[in-house]
Amino acid sequence: MTSPARGRSTVPTATHWGSYLAEIEDGVLQRLVPRDDDPVPNGLSDGIPKALTAPGRLTRPMVRRGWLEHGPGPAGTGGRSARGDDVYVPLDWDEVSALVADELNRVRTEHGNRAIYGGSYGWGSAGRFHHPQSQIHRFLNVAGGYTSSVDTYSSAAISVLLRRVAGGFQTAMDSTPTFDEIARHGSLVVAFGGLAPRNHRVNDGGIGAHLSPVAQRRARDAGVDFAVISPLRADAAEFLDAQWLAARPGTDTAIMLGLAHHIVSTGRHDLDFLTTCCEGWDRFEPYLLGAADGVPKTIEWACDISGLDPDELRRLADRICTERTVIATSYSVQRAEFGEQPPWMALTLAAISGSMGRPGGGFGCAMGALHRNGMRLSKMPVAAFPQGVNPVRDYIPVARIADMLLHPGEEFDYDGHRLAYPDIRLVYWVGGNPFHHHQDLNRLVRAWQRPDTVIVHEHFANSLTRHADIVLPAATFAERTDFAVGREDPFLSAMVAAAAPPGEVRTDHAILAGIAAKMGLLDEFTGGLSEDEWVADLYRRTQDRAGRHDVELPDWDTLVAAGRWELPDLPRPGSPYRGLREGRPIGTPSGRLEIFSAAIDSFGHDDCPGHPVWREPVEWLGSPLTERFPLALVSGQPDRRLHSQFDLAAHSRAGKVAGREPVLLHPDDAASRGISDGDVVRLFNDRGQVLAGAVISADIRPGVVRLSTGAWYDPVEPGGLDAHGNPNVLTRDVGTSTLAQGPSAHSCLVQLELFTGAPPPVRVFGPLPTA
Ligand SMILES: Nc1nc2c(c(=O)[nH]1)N[C@H]1C(S)=C(S)[C@@H](COP(=O)(O)OP(=O)(O)OC[C@H]3O[C@@H](n4cnc5c(=O)[nH]c(N)nc54)[C@H](O)[C@@H]3O)O[C@H]1N2
Ligand SMILES: Nc1nc2c(c(=O)[nH]1)N[C@H]1C(S)=C(S)[C@@H](COP(=O)(O)OP(=O)(O)OC[C@H]3O[C@@H](n4cnc5c(=O)[nH]c(N)nc54)[C@H](O)[C@@H]3O)O[C@H]1N2
Ligand SMILES: [Mo]
C-alpha cells in the first residue's frame, strides 16, 4: 500500500464518477484512464493530474490574518475584517494543530459541544476509510460531539415525505423497477425531471462501470417509449427518442393532477389498488375532482399552469392507464418550493394508473438522478470507518444552515417536531462546499460572519477556503490508498495512492490525528491503528461480511492487481409495493401507501397538508414577480464535473464560455435582449447578480434559462457581482415546506441582460491571497 517509485507504473483508483487506472511516470501522475471495459466512460477526470499541483492547490496550513490578530470572534464587525475579504498567513502544522485544539477546547468549555457545527455536508471523495465526513464526525464525537445535520441537498423533501407515506426512501428504491424489468414487462416511462445522461455518470461512493445508458438503450430497443417532462431537451439521451414535454418548471404536481383527473373522470383508475393498498383515496378524490375546493384538476387546468398542450397530455393519460407505465421523478422536481408534492403526487398517479405493484411499472423513485436508480441494486454489505456516537442531540435539517447561524435560539418546525437553532460558535467543514451547495450565497456570506471560528480542510483555494479562518490542506483521492464501493453499486474498486501529496499536504485523517494528539485524544481517534492498518482492517471486515453471504472476495493484492471486482447479486426481498397487492404491509401507520396521511394532516401545515395538492410557488413563471424577473432559472447538475469539484481542471475549464459558466437560453429570449452566442451576460434578481457566457439553443423552453451549479463563486467584492456564474447567488434560501425544510433551489426567477462593460476577471482559480 505504498506510492509507486521510479519508472512507469499504473495503479487503480476511483472516484464518484468512475474507476480508473492511474498512469505514473517517475513518481508523477500523468493520466487517469477509464477502465477499458467501461461501456460509457466520461472525461470528468481529464486534467485532474495537472490540477493537483496547480497554483490554486493548497500546500500549507493557512490562517486568516484578521482571526490571528483579533482571536476568535464574529467577523466583519468592530474593526474585524470580514470572512471572504481577508488575506492569509502560513503557519506550520505544529502551531496550527495547537491553535485548532485550543480553540475547540475553548468552545467546548465556554459554550458546550452543541456550539460546534460539524454537519459538514457534502460529497467529499470516494473511499471507505478516508471518507471525509466519517473522519470529521468520528473526530468530533471523540471530542464530545457536535450539532449535526439531517437529510441531504439531493433528496430532503422526498426522503422525509416517503418516510411518512410510503415506507421510506429505501422501500421506494427497492420497489422501483430496473430498466431491464421495464424492457421485459414495461411499455412507457413518464419521467418528470427527465433521465439526464450526464447525471448517470455519477454514483455516491463510486461507480464500477457506466451500465445505466446501456440498460436504458436495451429498454428502448425492446420497444419501451419514454416521455420526458422537463424544460431541457438534454434531460434524455438521444437514443431514447423521447417525447419531450417542455413544461414550465415547478408545475409537475399540476400536470400529474391533470393526468389523474382525466383517468379518474373517465373511470379508468385502479380502484381496487386504491382502496385495498392505499390509505385515504376517499379524502383525495374530492380534491382531484373539485368537490372539495370547487376546482376540478382537469387537463385544461393543468395546461393553463404548465404551458403544455391539452391533447398531448390527454393522449399521455390514455396510455398511462392502459399500458404498463412507470411514473418517475428525478430529484430536481423536489428541490423546489413545495418539493414534497411532486413525489407524493407521482406515487398517487402510479397508484391510479394500474401499474403500481406490477412488474416493470409503478413509481420510479429518483430515476433520473444517479446511476444506481433504475439499476440492479447491490445488497452487499461493506464496512465503513466507524464514526462513534454523538452525545449532542441538536441537529438541523441540512439546508437550514443560514437560518441557524442568523437566528440562534429561534424555534422552527421539521417533520412534525418543534426544534430550536443552537448558538453556533465554531464551524468545522471537511469534504463539502456550502459556498457551492447552499442557496442565496449573499445571505450565507452574512450568516457566515456570525461564528467565532470557521475551520476547513480543502484541496484548493476555492470559495469555501476563501471564507474560512483556519485552512488545512488535505490530500485528494489520488494521493491516498483506500477502496471504494458506491452505494448499491455492484463493484468494489481498489484505490492506491498515485501521487505524493504536494508541499505539506496531509490526509484528513492525519490532520485530525495531529489535532487529537494536542487534545490528548490521539488513541481514541485513531484506535491505535495506522492509516494502512485501518484500510486493511476495513477491507478484512468487508471480506468477512461478504463471507457470511457465501461470497469470497479477493485478497488485497489480487484486488489491486484486478483494480476492480464485480460483486455477485445477493438474493433480494421482492418489491415492497408489489407485496402490497399480496397483502404484505409496508412501514407506514396504516401499512399501506398513504395518499392521505393522518400524521402529516395533524401537523396542520398549509404548505404541506394531508394529501398531495397543487400550491403556487412564490417564484415561478405564473407569479407577479415575472414582471421584473421574467425568466425561470434551473440550476441543475453540471455536465463537466461533479458539483464544484475540480472546477479548475482542464475538463471543466474547457466548457466555460468567455471564461465563465455557460448559461443556456432560448433564441427568442436572446433575440429580445440583443444577445449573441458567446456574449457575457448578467443574470440578476433582488438577491444578487452573476456573469455567465451565453449559449443559445432551441433545446430549452422559452422563458427558462439554465445555469449549472458548481462554478467557484467569485464575487468582485463581498456581496457584489459574481464574475464566474454561480447560480446560488440567485437562488432562494427557503425550505421546501414546513414538513421537510429541504432546499428549494429550482424555484427561482431572474432577469438576464447583455453585459456591456469590461467584464471583471475570474480570479478564484489562483492561490489564496497571503499577507
Ligand atoms: N442551485 C442549486 N444548488 C444545489 C443543487 C442544485 O441542483 N441547484 N444541487 C444540490 C445537490 S443535489 C448537492 S448533492 C450539493 C452538492 O454540494 P457539495 O457536495 O458540497 O459539492 P462538492 O463540490 O462535491 O463539494 C465537495 C467539496 O469537498 C472537497 N473535497 C473533495 N474530497 C475531499 C476530501 O477527501 N477531503 C477534503 N477535506 N475535501 C474534499 C472538494 O474540493 C469540494 O470543495 O449541491 C446542492 N446545491
Ligand atoms: N455530471 C454530474 N452528474 C451528477 C451530479 C453532478 O454534479 N454532475 N450530481 C449528482 C447528484 S449529487 C445528484 S443529487 C443528482 C441530481 O439529480 P437531479 O436533481 O435529477 O438533477 P438536476 O440536474 O438538478 O435536474 C435534472 C433536470 O430537471 C429539470 N428540471 C428542473 N426543474 C424542473 C421542474 O420543476 N420540473 C421538471 N419536470 N424538470 C425540472 C432540469 O432541466 C434539469 O436538467 O445528480 C447526480 N449526478
Ligand atoms: Mo445531490
Structure, described:
This protein is α/β, with parallel strands linked by helices. The chain has 4 domains: about 10-50, no CATH class; about 60-150 and about 390-485 and about 490-565, Rossmann fold, CATH 3.40.50; about 155-375, Dimethylsulfoxide Reductase, domain 2; about 625-755, Barwin-like endoglucanases. It is about 30% helix and about 15% strand. The strands form 8 sheets. The chain has a 6-stranded mixed beta sheet. A 6-stranded mixed β-barrel has the order 24-28-25-27-26-29. β2 and β3 form a beta hairpin. The model has no long low-confidence stretch (mean pLDDT about 95). Bound molecules: ligand MGD (2 copies) and molybdenum atom. The site of one ligand MGD has 34 residues, from α16 and β18.
Percent range for helical residues? 25-40%
- The total count of strands amounts to 29
* Total count of domains: 4
**What is the CATH topology descriptor of the largest domain?**
Rossmann fold
Number of helices: 25
Attached small molecules: ligand MGD, molybdenum atom
How many angstroms does the end-to-end distance come to? 39 Å
Which class best fits the helix and strand makeup? alpha/beta
Largest sheet: 6 strands, mixed
- Low-pLDDT regions: none
